[in-house]
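Q&A log
Question type: sequence-to-structure
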Amino acid sequence: MQLTQRFFYRYLNIILLISLLNMMAFTSLAGEKMIIPMAEKQPHKMVLHGDSRMDNYYWLRDDTRKNKKVIKYLTDENQYTNAVLKSGTVLREQLFGEMVACMEQQDQSVPYTYNGYIYRTLYQEGKDYPVYQRKPVNKNSNWQILVDGNERAKGHQFYTLGGIAVI
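Response status: OK
Response body:
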């Protein structure tokens, strides 16, 4: 069995164990009379391109993030989720540490050539996001940074790069 296959099956077993622990936590919370938040159904008819459908949870859409009813429901959901998953916190952190330890922290993609440039994606130790680079096929040139996700993420709570395309 290849190393990656063994790695996969080991962590698949661990994920199944976490699921089992979460189910056990759920049943133990039942004794504490914890109320599971249930979103109420409010029928909302939607018509798009002549096709109509009923969305009972459309009221949860709050693009302004100011609807107090939606915010309360989501807060209740988050509190419930945290309570159910609390018993597995130490195990989750341990597993996360093991998985990160198995990954190469300083890594890069296989370089490829396109339109006279060599492209690669660089992953740096201690950084959260990759750095996309290129350099002319001339091997004496330095790598040019196309996108540095770490720089772009500075000052933001959340950052994601949907994709990068070279045309």
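Response note: The CA atoms of residues 34 and 55 lie 28 Å apart.
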